[in-house]
Amino acid sequence: MSSKPQCAPTEAWEAPIVFSLHEEQGKRAPMVGPDRSAAADVDFFQIVQGLPVAVYSTDAVGRITFYNDAAASLWGRRPKLGEDWWCGSWRLYWPDGTPMGHDECPMAVTLKTGYAATGAEAIAERPDGTRVPFLAYPTPLRNDNGQLVGAVNMLVDFTERKRNEEAAQHYAAIVESSDDAIVSKDINGVITSWNSGAQRLFGYTSQEAVGKPVTLLIPADRHDEEPPILERVRRGERINHYETVRERKDGSLVDISLTVSPIRDLRGNVIGASKIARDISERKRAEERQDLLLREMDHRINNLFALAIGIVSLSGRSASNVQDLVRSVRQRLSALARAQALTLSHSPRDDSQGIRPTTLHSLIRTIIAPHEDIEEAQGERVTIAGPDFGVSGSALSSLALLLHEFGTNSAKYGALSAPKGRIEIDGAEDVQAFVLTWTERGGPAITSPPDREGFGALLTRATVTGQLGGEISRDWRPEGLVIRLSVARERLTG
Fold first, then answer.
1. Are residues 135 and 239 in the same domain?
2. Other CB atoms within 10 Å distance of the CB of residue 124
3. Comparing C-alpha atoms, which of 329, 391, 402 is closest to residue 367?
4. Are residues 368 and 481 in the same domain?
5. Is-contact 32 18, C-beta < 8 A?
6. Residues 300, 288: Cα–Cα separation, whole Å
7. Which tens digit of pLDDT belongs to each residue from 108-158?
8. Comparing C-alpha atoms, which of 259, 260, 257, 230 is closest to residue 246?
9. pTM exceeding the 0.90 threshold for the entire prediction
10. Are residues 264 and 295 in the same domain?
């Protein structure tokens, strides 16, 4: 590979040299012009040599006659004076990266046309492969007769500016594509920039928002938030994850997490602020649902503990031995467990609330099912009629406990103790209450009501009156027991 640029002219002609530096001999040619003194020539040479920007000159045909150290540094090589042509670069490229011939470079164009091709952009490649983007400012030089005698060129390396431009474009693309709203404002709170995320979140286009006060987004009852924020920004403070509410173009409110950072000029003075607003509406709703669920769980657990304590306490009064106590407590707690399991089985996996009301009919069938499954049974033993609706809250456990007591007694002494026994459960609503009627048929004949009230009756009455605020009555008919339970509808569904 040749060590000097290609594309030198095939035919050369002699022309006056403007000024030249022969490093091997340490000599310079004199400046063109009758009034140049040697001292002035030396001073001018030292000035140009000491410039921090690349400067070089050629004669009229393009042979390099001088270059300073900054030019050699930009090129990564030291061309031979009088031999290399137009530009000292190892290779040249157009701004788009395609190769540029040395005879196409800005200096060559200036020498060929006689006009300055100033501000032209090109890329120089050093021998080590490093590429340097630069701007060229070639100027033709003429003698007193107007004859072109050469040209001087200044090359401005804008590698750092190019990096900054690319970084700015990169950051601008990130800001524009961000899902978050990114807004800047001046020190007086006037919006100066607005990305697509801000348009999606708040509904205003950039044309509608830029130039308007940022209070455009702040609900009227929160305008007192902005002055303290601006004051902190002026002091150079950063505000992290400040949760607040903002107003969209359509008037709706949105929960956001706001981060505010000061913007400084080159001297470090605060000239504005950048704001990043993130929509946290869904997170807020999730937190509210979680809080509601936790409070509901706490309420339910407290109710269950209270019921369990009551069951153990009252069962202990009527039990004749430990085995009876254990059996009765286990059966009643199992009924409560089935009722609670029923609430979860009705909740789909994607149900955000986690708990949904159990219907009355499904609760009845779940609690009664263990009592009606005997080998001698014939056909359906329990029928349910009347309105079906959701049962929730503390009423769920109370009603499950009542149904368990009804079913247990029926399995021991009533209709469910006989193969042909049947139970009809019918619901009806009147103006003030929901009435559940439990009618047994086909069981052992009833000759008289029980002569004493057992634990089940005590527990039932305490549950109906104390927890449900209702009423209960029993009719001991010869063909079977009839129970009438009356409860306010809102106590069952609330």
1. no
2. 25
3. 402
4. yes
5. yes
6. 18
7. 999 999 998 888 999 999 999 999 999 999 999 999 899 999 999 999 998
8. 257
9. no
10. no
